[in-house]
Amino acid sequence: MDAVRRSHENCGPDLDRLLDVTEFWPGSTTARRALAFSDPSAESVGESRLRVQMHEQGLPRPVLQASFEDGAGFIGRVDFYFPEMSTVVEFDGLTKYAAGSAEVLVSEKRREDRLRGLGLEVVRVTWSELKSPDRVAAHIRQAFTRAGRRAA
Hints:
Blueprint: H1 2-7, H2 12-21, H3 28-37, H4 45-56, E1 63-70, E2 73-82, E3 87-92, H5 102-117, E4 121-126, H6 133-151
Parallel strand pairs: 3-4
Antiparallel strand pairs: 1-2, 2-3
C-alpha cells in the first residue's frame, strides 16, 4: 500500500471509491486498516516492513523521512525519527554498500556521527534482523532509554 500511494500520488479518490464499492467484501476491513496505516513517505519495502513491525511491537509512531542539519549544513534524511525519544532508526537494505566502496561506508559513518552530535541515538536495522522483531524492538527501546538518561 505504501508503494501504491508513493507511485500514484493522486490515487486517494480512486482508493476511496474502491473501498466504498468493496465495503462488505471479505477482507475489506483489513484493506481499510492497511490503507489507513500506509504512508507514501516509505521509500522501500524494508522500511514498510520495519514500520509495521515497530507498530506491532507497540512502539510509538515515528516521523518518516525527517531531515536534519547541523552547523556544517544538511546531514540528510533519516528513515524513522522518534522526536520524543531523540532516536533515529535507519533501515539498511545494504544495496548502497554492495559495491564495496569504502567511500560509501565512510560517508555513512560520518553522517551517523553528525546525527549523534545532535544528541540523537541511532539504531540500524538490516533485512536479516527483520526475522527477529522482538530483538529489533528491544534495541530501539534500549536507544530510547539511553536518550532518556542523557536528557536527564
